[in-house]
Amino acid sequence: MSEVTRVLSAIQQGDPHAASQLLPLVYDELRKLASQKLAQEKPGQTLQATALVHEAYLRLVDVDQSQNWNSRGHFFAAAAEAMRRILIENARSKAREKRGGGWQRVDFERLDVTTSVSPDQLLALDEALARLAGLDHLAGELVKLRYFAGLALEQAAEALGVSTATAYRHWAYARAWLCSELLKDA
Fold first, then answer.
1. pLDDT at position 173, please?
2. Do 178 and 143 meet the contact criterion of CB atoms below 8 Å apart?
3. Most CB atoms closer than 10 Å: which of 75, 91, 94, 107?
4. Whole-Å CA distances, 37 to 27, 72, 92, 173
């Protein structure tokens, strides 16, 4: 009997310490299984293999429910099923309106406004930018330097005579504010 099978048998018989012995024995294999599952997912998946392994493991060794694994293969089949369910729950959660629904992630760092947006969108951005500058002049100037001049954040901070930390704060605020405003206008 392999060590994993012995520990699984001990868990099945109710040994409270057996569950803690199992993870070190199966962790590498579960991690490979999780990596394979995540490789089949769409790019941009925020769940990492380690988190998937840990969540699946917690479900597998739930002390409130009796687990009956016939063999090592049965345990790994159950682990694969647990990972599948976690990925499905995660996908359903992301599809909910309160989690962004059908929104698409836009990388503002690489966005080339002059070539990637329509004239109407550029006008909407300009109007939103004017409103932002009225609320926070520094944030408005920072956006202009980043979007239209193509400066890195550090370069824009230097050009405006502010610290990089201050520029990061204003940049985070400006991105969130502009995104909110542009979604209202859409």
1. 94
2. yes
3. 75
4. 15, 19, 17, 36
Q: Which contacts qualify for 156-165: CB closer than 8 Å, 24 or more apart?
A: 162/138
What would the two tokens of residue 78 be? 């159950």
How far is it, in rounded angstroms, from Cα 65 to Cα 154?
A: 54
Long-range residue pairs from 105-111, CB within 8 A, at least 24 positions apart, any chain: 105/44, 108/175, 111/147
Whether 43 and 25 have beta carbons less than 8 Å apart is answered as: no
Q: Write the single-letter amino acid at 66.
A: S
Question: What whole-number distance in Å separates Cα of residue 162 and Cα of residue 147?
Answer: 18
CA atoms of 11 and 24, how far apart (whole Å): 15
pLDDT digits (tens, 9 = 90+) for 142-174: 988 887 777 889 988 998 999 999 999 999 999
